[in-house]
Amino acid sequence: MRITRIVAMTAAVATLSLGLAACGKEGTPTPETPAGSGAAPQAASDACTSSGTSFAPASGVAIAGSPTFEKIKSAGKVVIGVKFDQPNLGYKDASGKRCGFDIEIAQLIASKLGVDPAKIEYKEIASANRETAIKGGEVDYYVGTYSITEKRKADVSFAGPYFVAAQDLLVRKDDTSITGSSSLQGKKVCSATGSTPIQRVRDQKLTDAGNIVEFKTYSECVSQLIDKKVDAVTTDDAILKGYAAQNQSLLKVVGSPFTDPATGRPYPEKYGIGLAHDDKALRDFVNAALEKAEQDGTWQKIYDGTLGKSGSAATAPALEKY
Amino acid sequence: MSNVLYDLPGPKARLRNRLLGGVSIIGIVALLAYIVMRFNDTGQFDSIKWQQFEYAAIQQQLVDGYLTTLRAAGTAAVLALVLGTLLAAARLSDHAYFRAPASFLVELFRAIPLLVLIFFAYYGPIQLGYKVGPFWPLVIGLTIYNGAVLAEIFRAGILAVARGQSEAAYALGMRKTQVMSLILLPQAVRAMLPAIVSQLVVLLKDTALGFIIQLPELLYVGKQIGGRLPFGLPYVPSYLVVAAIYITTCGLLSWLAFWLQKRLTRGRRRKTTVDTVPVLETGAGTGSAPNA
Amino acid sequence: MNEFLHVLTDNWDVIGSHFLATIELFLIAGVCSLVLGTLLTAMRVSPVPALRGFGTGYVLLLRNCPLTLVFALLVFAVPKLDVNLDYFPSACVALTAYTSAFVCEALRSGINTVPVGQAEAARALGMTFTQVLGNVVLPQAFRTVVPPMISVFNAMLKNTTIAAGFSVAEAGAIQAYLSERGENQIYVLLWVTIGFLILVAPLVVTQRMLERRWGVAR
Questions:
Q1: ipTM of this predicted complex?
Q2: N or C: which terminal CB in chain A sees fewer CB atoms within 10 Å?
Q3: How confident is the prediction for chain A on average, in pLDDT?
Q4: Cβ contact, residue pair C165, A154, below 8 Å
Q5: Averaged pLDDT for residues B224-238
Q6: Residue range C13-23: average pLDDT?
Q7: Does B51 lie at the interface with A, CB-CB under 8 angstroms?
Q8: What is the pTM for the complete model shown?
Q9: Residues near B235 by Cβ (< 8 Å), separated by ≥ 6?
Q10: B57 inside 8 A of chain A by CB
Q11: Neighbouring C-beta atoms of residue A40, cutoff 10 Å
């Protein structure tokens, strides 16, 4: 008696789930705001679009003395650490497609290494775990708003920078009280654990230690910002502009970068490609590839098709080779 | 039914109970209505927040996350059972040089938080220069912690078998291994089964900690789905869906434990030789089937 | 060895303050979950079916939901309900809600182990409700309840580490904080382990002692 009841229940659940699965729509989810829904935010598209640059894998690539390259060659694929929730930089849309400036730079390097971009294995690594992922060999290299700092150079090495951003603030659209780094006292500031911007806020005591909120991902910070649980999200302006572009009715970037009082210029967040600490051969190779891309216009094409859409023009930065 | 706390209700008590019942139903319904209304006001039921779930790609991600959770839980469960058996056997040994280290290890592993064990398994090897992904540290952490708890459950189960059984077996001239395998284990396993299944439910829930080291298990996938700004940052719908999946799965397993206990103690009118093993540890959530 | 000790002394401000936060979280959530757990037990054993149903439903939901998810719902869903809680109080509420389900279970099984005959005899002797509870039922239930209850709180102490993933600066967050400072990860984790062993030891010792003294022979 009870057995038949259990069997009946399991059958019901199974058919329900099968039915739901059959109802799954194909294709990329695109947000459709129904007409007249005042509460829903105006949403930009979630679907990934690339810059249109083609990345044909190079042939006959050989890098002497690079253990990482040997590993890539023998595996036939490359494992790249990326971000997944930074619009126009490293983003994964709802259908699983990846796009963004960092993603395309990663694909550029992969193609120069002789790997077909379709054979790239992406691994999502949060900010706090980037050094451990590279050191442990979990990824071959990392491209994901990875700022070059002296402290990090003790654990990993960097090729680049391939972009220079500045630290800025994201606030609610109707919030006029925050105008820059000096107006953060008493405000709650959110960022990702392990990122340089939050370390700067902490070191310079821009707000009380109790007002510093850290989450694993920026999207959680943005959610808390919209819910009015924090007053500002701080990170690189490139990332913030992507979020603001996705929701212009609720969010805005303050637009006054954190400036170094000593030099009077904004603190530069230099994005580099994270590589194994001792792999100089690969570092030189990647730097050479970046330099070529900057000179022959590929860099500009990639930028204009991804990050450039957030609204600001930029030029390729000078590489720091070491 | 009269029970320990109150006697059969008389007319006044019945009226009072009915009044209380009415008031509490109103209160509960009001609370639930408030929650649903607030969610509605803040737009949690807007179609845009639930849109992602209609698509096959998202459903596939949820299924993949669920399968990863089940895979991690399954692997850890098997390994924890093995480790638990070894530790329990060592703790029950007659030789102090097995017993003492095993006791120490069991107490140690039960005292360390699971998160710290996972961190050890993840950051430790990397500090020493070895490659490790997020799957095995989670499994190793779960194995060590739940292995220690299972060892305690096994030991309690073996000790719960009535002493007369083992005494009679020794009197017949059986050696320790024979006593253990022929007499004690079969009876003990019956008593331990509900507690073991409860601990495995705990194990399944603890796989949710994998998101901290970026294992793409169910909670992590839920976070990703919820973090999409173009869809209105649907954290609430996403977490509700994930919660429903967890509660259903764990609920089914807990119910299995409960059913096992009912089945094993059914038809035992006489006092049995084994009582079911009492709840030893309500770890990061053990189900405690009520003591028989 | 020197470096190992230095990790503690150099970073004592972080390690000390974070462990203090853990202890605070434990004490606050402990007291609150005791209260809420007792309330839930009272609901579950009450003669009112609606309250019984609510209590059972609450325990069923929260026992089968991962604690991490409870935290996540509290931090991301509860703000929508117009309840604006800071992160530390959110963590307290989450731990309380979760642990109270287990406190309720422990209490309920304790009450169930007292034979009905005891209470019936007491009532037959004319004792009032409070007298029955205070003189007959609770003292017997206490012995069965206390060791599992200590287990529950032991588990809660370890569960406080989950709050670290939701922006509470307690012991679980020490590893992330100190890795920003560049310390050796294994040493940091060893110190965190030692800290927890110190915190957990009194609970475990008490539990073993009570189990041995109050081992109920049936």
A1: 0.84
A2: N
A3: 83
A4: no
A5: 86
A6: 91
A7: yes
A8: 0.85
A9: A220, A223, B223, B226, B227, C72, C76, C77
A10: yes
A11: 18
